[in-house]
# Entry
Amino acid sequence: MNKSINGIKGPDKENFLDLAPKQAGKTNNGKKAGSPIRQLSKSKKLIAFALVGLLAIAGVWLVALRGGGGELTNQQVIDKVSSLVTDLPTETPTIATIEDAEAIVQTDAFYTGSGNGDKVLVYPQSKRAIIYSPDNNTIVKDGSVSGAQ
# Structure
């Protein structure tokens, strides 16, 4: 016996449903049912995203604690140099930063071995100059200065 079920002609409703292929994993509306594995995967993604966010926040916080990762203050430079050199003069040095090491080496051989960003500490009364590399935390050069006042 043929009946029209929702615009489909064929056997009666009970037999038609039995003849329909089974679609495992599909819900009544045809969408795929969420499996526990897919839900767990979304949870893991959410946790990973949260951890990455927390790590980024922690990184920004640490950089802020260290002074923004920028230039050292003069006192920090003096403290670092005094930990490397035992006989520093007691006077306060004049501190400059080398910006073009190649050019300055050509004008004065004292700067040989220095690099951009290195600090020059000049002690005028002691007539002494020290080149300090903050990148390597080393003394590049320690010597006397002629003409210092």
